[in-house]
Amino acid sequence: MAEKRTRIVVLGGGFGGLTFCRSFRLPDADILLVDRHNHHLFQPLLYQVATAGLSASEIAQPIRSILRDKPNVRVHLGEVESLRPAERQVVGNGRTLEYDYLIVALGGQTGYFGHPEWEAFAPGLKSLEDAQRIRRDVLMAFERAENSEDPVEQQRLMTVVVVGGGPTGVELAGAFAELARHVLNRDFRRIDPARARIVLVEGAPRILGTFPQHLADDAAATLEKMGVEVRCGLRVRDIRSGVVEFHSGERIEAGNILWAAGVNASPLTRDLGAPMDRTGRVLVNPDLSVPGHPEIFVIGDAAAIADASGQFVPGVSPAAMQQATHVARQLEDEISGRPNRRPFRYWNKGSMATIGRSAAIAKIGPLEFSGYPAWLAWLFVHLVFLVGLRNRIAVLGQWFYSYVMYRRGARIITGKA
Ligand SMILES: Cc1cc2nc3c(=O)[nH]c(=O)nc-3n(C[C@H](O)[C@H](O)[C@H](O)COP(=O)(O)OP(=O)(O)OC[C@H]3O[C@@H](n4cnc5c(N)ncnc54)[C@H](O)[C@@H]3O)c2cc1C
User: Fold this and answer.
1) Tell me: the pLDDT tens digits for 122-149?
2) Active-site choice (58, 171, 178, 202)
3) Which of 126, 282, 321, 402 is the most buried (most CB within 10 A)?
């Protein structure tokens, strides 16, 4: 009789799920990877799609093609709807999948601090659809401004408010300022896009709270030089169509309001019945398994685990990839009859944020630097980690073109505005 093969179901083909599938080396287990998209998305470059620097296909790659050399991995395109840990089942698209081991790598979604109604007026940036919507809305606002006779309305349409002064907010604000001042300013006749108002709003006393103060100060100074209004200590009270109101009583009318302030874990984590933090991340065991379920692991943005210093491991791609490799090694041992569960150790390789042309900040080990060297380091790291040679070449080409020509290739408006 044929020996029963171990069934591993992996939910999510993002950084965590994909890395697990790529790094799992044991041929005598069947892996089923489920994702609602047919592509793996390189989220760190999403803001460049939103700001017309890159096209969607340049930062995404079909999951099937990435895993084509893994004969024991099957890919299932479908939405996961519920998890049934007691029955060891996953339900989605009218199908029930059974597993021996489950890897939950479903990532997160934009969080609105208990105000889901704000989403309609202030989209977040989490998927290609979000990025394309933002790009369309911002470019359309400039088109409407060009058609308007009213200077006040023109200025409102050319105002972009970015809520959230973390790396994504900084990247978006910097890239929109450059788009308006260096690219769009040559395309329009009746409006002057160089007069666009880009406002970066942060509730805390400073932007980039996870970076050292002096790097955050450098970033704020660079943004201001680029024409971005950096407003710290301003807490959002309400967002409605075209207007954001703050607790201070101030309100800003804007053609576009973008939300880069919060991330929650996938809501499916609730089905696990495990303890969670306030953003819905599962408080996993040191080996990344779910309390009471040694056969279920949660990795990446859906997991909450402290590192050696007691700090929670940040929701960044290297953490998701390291956790995926850790679980892969543990399962290889266990399935081979050498159970060896061990605590996950996060190796913090540093953090970076780009502000704009030739400007970024970086903290890598003891090194803290900003400006051109940090920007080059940022370009290098993002190219290396982008999946697919074709995408790397395409992105490098686009960056070179934008840098030399002060142009952005992806300014076509598609879809309903
Ligand atoms: C705009 C932005 C910029 C970022 N910049 C950086 C950066 O510069 N550096 C960095 O290190 N990190 C960055 N991050 C964070 C990084 O992308 C995440 O930490 C990383 O993607 C987490 O990996 P993950 O595998 O947990 O989730 P993800 O990579 O998000 O993957 C989750 C997968 O699950 C799938 N999925 C979700 N729900 C379902 C469902 N119900 N059914 C089926 N499939 C589902 C999704 O389609 C997705 O493919 C950024 C994130 C964003 C949003």
Assistant:
1) 999 999 999 999 999 999 999 999 999 9
2) 171
3) 282
Domain parsing of the chain, residue ranges: 6-36+78-110+263-335, 116-261
What whole-number distance in Å separates Cα of residue 405 and Cα of residue 232? 33
Question: What tokens were used for 227?
Answer: 């024409």
Placement of tokens 């408080």 in the chain = 283
Do the domains 6-36+78-110+263-335 and 116-261 sit in the same CATH topology, yes or no? yes
Please return the burial class of 68, using the count of CB atoms within 10 Å of its CB with bins 0-12, 13-18 and 19+: exposed
Q: Position of tokens 């996060």?
A: 346
The band of 2, judged by pLDDT with boundaries at 50, 70 and 90, is low
Q: Which fold, 6-36+78-110+263-335? A: FAD/NAD(P)-binding domain (3.50.50)
Report CA(303)–ligand 1 centroid distance (Å). 12
Is the C-beta atom of 35 inside 6 A of ligand 1? yes
Please check whether residue 299 is in contact with residue 105, taking contact to mean a CB–CB distance below 8 angstroms.
yes
Ligand 1 mutation pick, 9, 10, 11, 15, max ligand atoms within 8 A of CB: 15
DSSP letter assigned to residue 181: I
The residue type found at 98 is: E
Predicted TM-score of the model (pTM): 0.94
Distance CA 295, CA 209 (A): 36
Q: What is the CATH number of domain 116-261?
A: 3.50.50.100
Has 149 been annotated as catalytic?
no
Of the CA atoms within 13 Å of residue 166, those in its CB half-sphere come to: 16
Phi, psi of 91 (to 5 degrees): -115, 140
Considering only CA atoms, which of 78, 115, 111 is closest in space to residue 97? 78
Classified as helix, coil or strand, 391 is helix
